[in-house]
Amino acid sequence: MTQRPGDLIERTRKLYEVVMGQSPELTADFSLAFAALLEGLPDIVVELPWNETRPNEQLERHQIVLHSLGQNQERVLFYVPNASPDLVPGTEIGGQPGQGPARRVEADGLQSMALTDLARFFAEGRAHALIPPREMFT
Q1: How far apart are CA 20 and CA 36, in angstroms?
Q2: Does residue 50 sit within a domain?
Q3: Which pLDDT band, with edges at 50, 70 and 90, does 1 fall under?
């Protein structure tokens, strides 16, 4: 099934509102998502193109949960909810047709990608973010 940018995260937004009783900010503006990440807001969900072929499944779009910026702020660390637990930290994955975006396996179940790649997805109108209400964390 072909999904348009924003379809997947819109369903997540509705679920968030029902479960949490609060409305996250849905945005296609990278600067807002980046500012929230710099503020240290947790659980920023991002929908982006994934284009990964798995056995019995084609992931056109996927959602990740932003965690933090890397030490030099050139990479963004994130959780991939259905990532294989067998991946070894330091392994470069993706970046080829059918493999999802280029990324690196990090410690503690995290992955990372170049911050410029994430920003490009937003600039091309192919990524959206759900920013949790700040009052939930103050």
Answers
A1: 19
A2: yes
A3: low
